[in-house]
Write a structure and sequence with these properties.
single chain; VC0467-like; 16% helix; 32% strand
């Protein structure tokens, strides 16, 4: 796994923490750590970090980044070519509509994520900086599949509830 890749949950993942999620890997040095990009909360960012104001991308809410340390926040900043983890001071001076704030993160011990991928739990794909700041986080899982070549592309049509198919 490489820093900056996306993990896309396989359809029907049984772990409710990761069902239909897209995770941006921001650290792969000792195990792996990432942020769920498509789980916005109902918490307005202005209630938590009012200084970010114009820097926050829409929707300007806190995102649920994963089940680890949910009481801590992380800020991702994105440009057309680069995605970086920022502290809140740097984020408050960032370009307009260029940051997203996450509560918690997803983490894997050394070898754990590789085992989950080998078992068929995740697809690892390249990111697009637009993924981090998408204005449609609810559609991100399908959008990432839609741009994949070959067999992965078919997952874009996977029904929300396969029992109704």
């Amino acid at each position: 796994m490489d820093h900056g890749q996306l993990l896309v949950a396989v359809p029907g993942m049984l772990d409710p923490n990761f069902d239909a999620t897209v995770v941006y890997l921001f650290d792969t040095t000792d195990g792996a750590a990432g942020l769920i990009l498509n789980r916005p909360t109902d918490i307005p960012l202005s209630d938590v970090l009012p200084d970010l104001g114009e820097a926050a991308a829409a929707p300007a809410v806190v995102f649920h980044g994963g089940p680890v340390m949910v009481e801590h926040g992380l800020v991702l900043g994105a440009t057309h070519t680069e995605i970086t983890v920022l502290d809140t001071e740097a984020a408050s001076g960032a370009d307009p509509k260029s940051v997203r704030v996450f509560a918690g993160y997803a983490g894997w011990e050394t070898g754990q994520l590789e085992a989950e991928i080998a078992a068929g739990g995740w697809f690892a794909v390249d990111n697009s900086p637009a993924d981090v700041l998408t204005e449609d986080p609810g559609g991100l899982w399908r959008a990432v599949f839609a741009r994949q070549p070959g067999p992965l592309n078919r997952y874009r049509t996977y029904p929300d509830d396969p029992r109704l198919n």
